[in-house]
Amino acid sequence: MDKNYRTSGYNILNGHSFGGLTATNILLHHTKLLNSYVIIDPSLWWDNEIMIKKADSVFNKKDVENRNIYVAIANKISIPQDTTTDMARGIRRFEKLLKEKKTKNLRWAFKFYDNEDHGTIPIPAEYDGLRFIFKEHLVQVKQAIQNPDLVKEQYQKLSKDTGFSFLPTESYLDWMGNYCLQNDKTEQAISFFTLANKFYPQSKNIYSSLESIHKIR
């Protein structure tokens, strides 16, 4: 994937049902393989809740180094069923472990979806999981053009929260700079183009934008 796509290096695993069981297994045994985990209505009942038992011991001694976990649970209608496959029971036990173990350098959230069942929960939960991982990441455009430092500060905060070095994209900084120019905010435009030039010194597009500033001035 890294070879064929423009990946950033920050990897998130999203798993639902047995995929959520798989995500939990990787989280427990290969934690550093990925940066964040979105675990949606996982089948933690499987094999007599073996993953719960493993989590009970692993969470006691693990330093997960700024990993993020978002766990979602669907609303289960009460119907007679085999208690060995009780989805909600296993997930709630996993939530209890997250609360009690206080695993080092772990940021996590848990949400019950009252209006979703096992089949409908993936889409809203995946979206909410991404919003949790990148919480407070966005900066309003109108605020940013008044104070470009907000963008730099927000990316620094995001990098600290996730333990990964995030940079604003070249296209974003260039767009913001040109937006400032369109709104007669030349100094702010310079700030965005200068920041872009710092992060992407080989960009011909940024050099072109900086040259356009000099012509205006």
From TrEMBL:
Belongs to the esterase D family. This is Alpha/beta hydrolase. It comes from Flavobacterium hydrophilum. SUPFAM superfamilies: alpha/beta-Hydrolases. GO terms for molecular function: hydrolase activity, acting on ester bonds. Keywords: Hydrolase. Gene3D superfamilies: alpha/beta hydrolase.
